[in-house]
Amino acid sequence: MPSSSNRRKYFPANSLILLLLIALFITNGCGAYPGVMSGNWLIALTPSVSLDQILATASLRQSGNQITGTVAFTGAGTSCRAETSVSGSLQGNTLNLLFIQSQGTANLTGTVNISFTSGSGAYSTGGSSCFEALGPGLWSAVFISN
Predict the structure, then answer these.
(1) Does the residue 19 lie in any domain?
(2) Which residues does residue 146 pair with via DSSP β-bridges, in sequence order?
(3) pLDDT digits (tens, 9 = 90+) for 116-129
(4) Tens digits of per-residue pLDDT, 46-91?
(5) CB 65 within 8 A of CB 97
(6) Among residues 10, 28, 97, 104, which one has the fewest Cβ atoms lying within 10 Å of its Cβ?
């Protein structure tokens, strides 16, 4: 019978896989991964009371499921010409964004596609800023660049 001191000690493969997964999780959890929504997006808002389409360029940053950034509006029918702050969240493919400007807000809810390159949904407005002039409607977005 061989003694226990002569036996080779092997590191189980399952333990190695577990260690690699933990290392990957720690790396992603510490901010090494910028998030699927991070980058520049082109957003089109289509008010239900008008045929005018309002375009917005958003620069988004994602940390975990939280999204922050800025958005600038262009297009006919909007008085929202200044840069506006953005906050929101991403849960799976469900996206919620809140544009905040002075006394008003625009709340976008919807979904993004599985590759996180486009999205769509509905928006509502509130308050007494330029967003109120937009009224509620539909939005769509496409990813432009990092």
Answers:
(1) no
(2) none
(3) 999 999 999 887 66
(4) 888 877 788 889 999 999 999 999 998 876 555 666 688 999 999 9
(5) no
(6) 10
CA angle 105, 110, 116 (to 5 degrees): 115
Domain count for the chain: 1
pTM confidence score:
0.73
Cα separation, 137 vs 135, in Å, equals 7
Long-range (24+ apart) CB contacts under 8 A made by 56-61 are 56/99, 57/144, 58/86, 58/141, 60/86, 61/34, 61/35
Tokens of 86: 């953005």
Answer yes or no: is 22 within a domain: no
CATH of the domain at 116: 2.40.128.120
**pLDDT, the chain, mean:** 79
Domain that holds residue 80: 39-145
Burial class of residue 77 (count of CB atoms within 10 Å of its CB; 0-12, 13-18, 19+): middle
Tell me the per-residue pLDDT of 8-58, one tens digit each, with 9 for 90 and over.
Answer: 555 555 555 655 555 544 444 444 456 789 999 999 988 888 777 888 899
pLDDT at 59: 96
H or E element that contains 28? helix 13-29
